[in-house]
Amino acid sequence: MNTIFDTKRTFSTDNGKGAVQFPDFPGERLIALDGALIHAVSPAGAALFRPTAPLAMVILSAIRDVEWSLGPGVTQVFDAPAGTVLVFPAESQSMLRWPTDKESVSVTLSGERLEGLKEFSSELGEPPFSAASRNVDPKCLQVAHLLRGELQKQAPINERYLDALMTVVVTLLLRNHVDKRRDRKETGGLSYQASRRIEAYLRENFCNKISIAEMAAQVGISPGHFLTSFRESFGQTPHQYLLMLRLNEAEKQLRETDMPLSSIAEMMGFSSQSHMTTALKKNKFATPGEIRRRRLFASPMGHEVQAAE
């Protein structure tokens, strides 16, 4: 059977090249291609990862305050917009915590798949996916939605189609890796202290209009240097980061209150209700009305159960 629906806490599968171990966390999973592709919906929790081959996880819906522990004294705390891609290197242990429901698509980055992309080898400069990484990639998000759609359809899956889409994901990740090497500046990103300072400032003021100059002043560098360094550190522009904060809070208000849409839009700093609606549809693939209706399908466990089409 090609596709397995599994709700067990732990499981493993053998793809002919050794057992593939999956982390211990509750939730629902759709698995294909002998474990090389997983769609998972998990309630708030944590998971310990130590994949036998590099693993790329694409976050499908925004999550606040994700904690990624990569080793002793090395922990990242960040907001993950939809399209955040986390790369877990092979045989490297890390802990991922998420405080709200998490929906993701994970792709195993097998050696065989990488062998078919040798055109990148001369520019990589190092073995691909040998270190943990995080970035935001809208194209990976689009492909991940296609993978999810194929897994969820009420018909036998098309393995060739899934395999082709997975190759696209690997190609996008390799291209991103190469582009970062080309564009890397000697100055690099923001320091840890500067990153935490600007992140706290933006979280406190995201509903207000904030200029790049005002942001740069918070960390004591020029606006131009700030733009480059912010993108290097956060994987997105300051504007994209602010938009993500506003959309996260707008979604929370839509789920938890009956406040009028126009009031939420104004409170979140959008120019109009239609501006907020457009941004939600583009980034969260749902209108305000659809987000509110999902409350009707909330399960007792706290994660959503989508209505059938």
What does it look like?
α3 runs antiparallel to α4 (159-183). This protein has helices at residues 111-115, 121-124, 138-152, 159-183, 192-205, 212-219, 223-234, 238-256, 261-267, 273-284, 288-293, and strands at residues 4-6, 12-14, 19-21, 28-32, 37-42, 45-49, 55-59, 63-71, 74-80, 84-88, 94-98, 102-108, 133-136. It has a 7-stranded antiparallel beta sheet with strand order 1-4-5-12-7-10-13, covered by helices on one side. A 4-stranded antiparallel beta sheet has the order 6-11-8-9. A two-stranded antiparallel ribbon has the order 2-3. It is α+β, with helices and mostly antiparallel strands and 309 residues long. It folds into 2 domains: 4-183, Regulatory protein AraC (Jelly Rolls, Sandwich), CATH 2.60.120.280; 258-309, Arc Repressor Mutant, subunit A (Orthogonal Bundle), CATH 1.10.10. The two termini are 24 Å apart. It contains 11 helices and 13 strands.
